[in-house]
Amino acid sequence: MKLFKKFLWILIGLVGLISIAVLLFVQHLKPEYEGEVEMADLSAKVEVYYDTYGIPHIYAQNTADAYKALGYVHAQDRLWQMELLRRIGTGGLSEVFGKDLLETDKFFLAMGIEEATHKTVKNLDPKSDEVRLAQAYLSGINQFIADGPTPIEFYLTGIDKKAFAMEDILNVMGYMSFSFAMAHKTDPWVSRLNDKLGPKYLKDLGLDVDPNTQLIPNFPNRAQRDSLSLHTDSIATNAMAQVLEPLEALSIPLFEGSNSWVIGPQKTATGKVIFANDPHIGFAQPSVWFEAHINTPDYEMYGYHLAGMPFPLLGHNRQMAYGLTMFENDDIDFYYETANAEGTQYKTPDGWRDFSTHEREIIVKDSGLVKFSYKETLHGPILNGIANQVQGDRPIAMKWIYTQEDNQLLSAVFGMTQAQNLKDFKTSVSKIHAPGLNVMYGDVDNNIAWTAAGKLYEMPKGVQTKMVLDGSSGEDEPLRFLDFSENPQSVNPPWGYVYSANNQPDTISGIWYPGYYLPENRGKRIVQLLEAKNDWDRENVETMINDVTSSMTPTVVKEIFKCINIKELSDDHSDKLDILGQWDGNYQLDRIEPTIYHRWEYFFLKNTFEDEMGPEMFKEFLATHLHKRITVPMISDEGGKSIWWDNVKTTDTIEWKSTIVTQSFQQAMEALEKELGQDREQWTWNRVHTLEHGHPIGQVESLRSFFNVGPFPIVGTREVINNLAFKYDGSGDYKVGSGPSTRRVIDFSDIENSRSILPTGQSGNPFSTHYKDQAELYNAGKFRKMLLNTEEIQSKTSTVLRFSKAE
């Protein structure tokens, strides 16, 4: 018995020691929000006050010291996220996650981001302010890497921490630029559909500019509306869409869309500008943005930073505010190249030219080194052989403005943060060549502005560039780049507001500029709300940015009633149709109409398009913006004679719109009864519309609850202002994939009470108290203050991290 008791006490002691060791290890991994850190090359003390939500407020005597501290505090909360984002453009994901990421790595290596980065870095002026401060930021990151604890993800994946360099900043910018582009999702599918069915089937897919939708108005320089030759091209493969799927699976953020509006003084209650912005990005954990407030004697900025980026893409101070949405222009073109019999040369207007050949290596976890090569022409990399999904032997080259033109993005973003007025700001914005962005601006002097940024170009008239272009003739090349003054824009318009919701801009200089614009739904709702009031205040705008009423679904429902065959419905299904008919398009959690509507819309799209497209192409169709644009025109009178209505699988009958609408509603009701039960009162939106913020390590089921945040039932839907987007997959389960990555409302009549929110939390460290402390507020549509007042910051701060010069 004594021996047993002795053994028991030894066992208890060992368990206690292990528990203590685990607790000490966990404590060691937490970010340090207070204390003192010695920092090399610091010129004076820096104090970082952390507010209630872990936002660092950095007080320094000069900007260089402030950016060193920023790099350190950014890294201690987001080093793992920084590591992932810098690896994408350089083909480094396979080293972390294994062979499943090999094709993605090959693709991004071939895109030339790394080569473009090296070229850009060589041309940077080391004495310029943007380079000097970027280097200070990198110095702070690298001190944390050297001295700080290693994030747990590095232990779990077995990779080592490595110092960051200027190239990493540019590589993150390169990935960001590519993820904005929509060509890789849409163009491959369009060309394959044309090859399969012919051009008559493209007519009703909304590929062309629609002048009858809600357009973003330009001011000044309205002009006669003509048409510019489209440059939305395609390739006979779905390679690019497929190589990006692993990024979605890993919850690496992809840029999707956005809203922003800036209300001028004539439409606000206080006579001062109110600015609103909510960029729509793929949800991930940690959240995409890191907030930081810098204050020095001659500079102040409250900014939102991407991982590894020193200068904020979103920001404000007491003088001005700026934000972004996606322009949705096309900056990628594809070209067929004509190769000689030996495959060593390709034809150009000036004769035959040798292919460039690149040999690359990728480290693959548990598989060693993988070598591959690809060819390149003057247009860009040859896609054949880069990804297994590329079909055929005819070489297809991809031309991307980001890698083809000089890169001044670092200077542009830095200049935006330093601008003293609207003129300075627009000068910096004009340096952006890619990605295409709608840059929104408001200031304390009552200026408001929207500018479409990016190098836009004109193609020869008559060139049908929706398909792959001819790379050998020289006749399918851009004629010119548009001057920046020709870009769509509006400055202080007389109607008193500017906005963007990724919808089609109006003409400027007589040109319709085509792209991958989203449907008018959000833009129409924004205009409806802004036009109705001239006494906007901050609280009204906060309500508006959370609006979940669709401007278009009531229109669709009316069309359903016009063409549905009531006689074919059971009494029970007719009653459910009546419920849908009373709906105002509101997407609250306790409503059943959204559940009915989306189940019907899925079957409507499936029954209309899948028989011709086939299951795989239909699935790809649902991954593009095109299907979001198609429901309204197809069900309206203009779509009444569409070639798509007839089911090609039924040879003895011809189906019409009424047949498809009725059949789809019946199938939707039967599916809902099977999935959610016979009691329609249980078909509420909260049961099917959910949001989970996924962490790459959270893909392992046993670690999911620790690393992921959620799932939560969530209000909203896709293409309402509070845009919570999901993909249709036939399951009737709408797992939200993207949405507002932040909601910001900045009121220049009371700048210190401006509001914001993040989807989960400020920290990417799962042991931090700020890993998910904003999630409940975000889900409820609530906000927190973006603190600017020094006295308030210091009085409400319980932790201070001080940086001092290393002796």
Automatic annotation (TrEMBL):
Amino-acid biosynthesis as UniProt keyword: no
Known cofactor(s): Ca(2+)
Domain of life: Bacteria
Residues binding Ca(2+), per UniProt: D330, D333
One MF annotation (Gene Ontology) recorded for this entry: hydrolase activity, acting on carbon-nitrogen (but not peptide) bonds, in linear amides
Entry-linked InterPro entries: Ntn_hydrolases_N (IPR029055), Pen/GL7ACA/AHL_acylase (IPR014395), Penicillin_amidase_A-knob (IPR043147), Penicillin_amidase_dom1 (IPR023343), Penicillin_amidase_N_B-knob (IPR043146), S45 (IPR002692)
Gene3D superfamilies, per database record: 1.10.1400.10, 2.30.120.10, Glutamine Phosphoribosylpyrophosphate, subunit 1, domain 1, Penicillin Amidohydrolase, domain 1
Protein name, entry field: Penicillin acylase family protein
Entry's cofactor comment: Binds 1 Ca(2+) ion per dimer.
PANTHER family: PENICILLIN ACYLASE FAMILY PROTEIN (PTHR34218:SF5), PEPTIDASE S45 PENICILLIN AMIDASE (PTHR34218)
Active site: S258
